[in-house]
């Protein structure tokens, strides 16, 4: 019974992966440089003599709850 459930679950995952690939192809999200083409270049562009800001970049994920778990000691420059 365990082998049959594992086989059925593997087939289910393969079907989901195939559907995801079909959606990505239909939405033209299957390009290797997709993330590079869809980033905001002005947000990450830096001038040669630009002064350092207090924050290099700001981010929000799921209502900012995930950022509350980040350890600020890792990201501080004055350690």
Description:
This protein has 79 residues and is mostly helical. 47% of the residues lie in helices and 0% in strands. The chain has helices at residues 2-26, 34-37, 41-44, 72-75.
Quickly list its features.
elongated, about 0% strand, mainly alpha, about 80 residues
Question: Radius of gyration in whole Å, from Cα?
Answer: 21 Å
Provide mean pLDDT, rounded. Answer: 76
So what's the overall shape?
Answer: elongated
Oligomer: single chain
Percent of residues in helices: 40-55%
Biggest pleated-sheet summary: none
In whole angstroms, the N-to-C terminal distance is 56 Å
Q: Unreliable segments (pLDDT under 50, ≥5 consecutive)?
A: none
Strand content: under 5%
- What is the number of helical segments per DSSP (H or I, 4+ residues)? 4
Q: Which class best fits the helix and strand makeup?
A: mainly alpha
Order of helices and strands: HHHH
How many distinct beta strands? 0
In short:
This protein is mostly helical and 79 residues long. It has helices spanning 2-26, 34-37, 41-44, 72-75.
Question: How would you summarize the topology of this molecule?
Answer:
Elements: H1 2-26, H2 34-37, H3 41-44, H4 72-75
């Amino acid at each position: 019974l365990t082998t049959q459930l594992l086989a059925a679950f593997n087939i289910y995952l393969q079907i989901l992966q195939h559907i995801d690939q079909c959606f990505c192809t239909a939405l033209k999200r299957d390009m290797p440089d997709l993330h590079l083409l869809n980033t905001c270049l002005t947000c990450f562009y830096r001038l040669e003599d630009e002064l350092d800001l207090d924050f290099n970049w700001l981010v929000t994920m799921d209502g900012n709850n995930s950022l509350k778990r980040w350890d600020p000691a890792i990201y501080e420059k004055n350690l």
